[in-house]
# Entry
Amino acid sequence: MVRRTRAEAEETRVSLLATARRVFAEQGYAQVSMDDLTRQAGLTRGALYHHFGDKKGLLAAVVLQIDQEMEARLQDISESATSPWEGFRARCHAHLQMALEPEYQRIVLRDAKAVLGDIGDNQSQCIATMARLIDSMIRNGIIDETDPEALALLIFGSLSETSAWIADEGGSEARLRRATCALDILLRGIPNTAQPQPAG
# Structure
């Protein structure tokens, strides 16, 4: 009986997350009422309160889910590259390109930024991953000796702010092109000068 109850609770949680993710992306967080959200999920307000506390807690859970998926995509890009530096560079470019994706743009770059402010736990995970990649490249002589966490903070902060800037115009392709050119200039100064410079 306990096992069945846990399975049902997880099913309820998954349903609320999936429904919230869809309606937040389609309508925007501010436009969605809790009653409408739970009605579309076929559940009650009590279920939402039990699993997420409130609508804001539900948004935070949706953002975490999207961020985890984004991180997995970026990790695949890093691992499939021809070299650690090329993988890091491609990862940074992909981060900016995601600002054009409607779901990520509306939920994470607009609503979450306005409603949740500094979503520290999600960002900390991304920064920690970036710091590990940087640390590995330092140990292999690809990047000059420096503090991996500090460099990760500088790069991630730049990418996050620039992604929000791209999203401000509804996912402007023109802004993405401008940001991509600027990113190439920024990244060009990071690898050890004894290493071959990336193309483009």
Observations:
- Residues 196-200 have pLDDT under 50 and may be disordered.
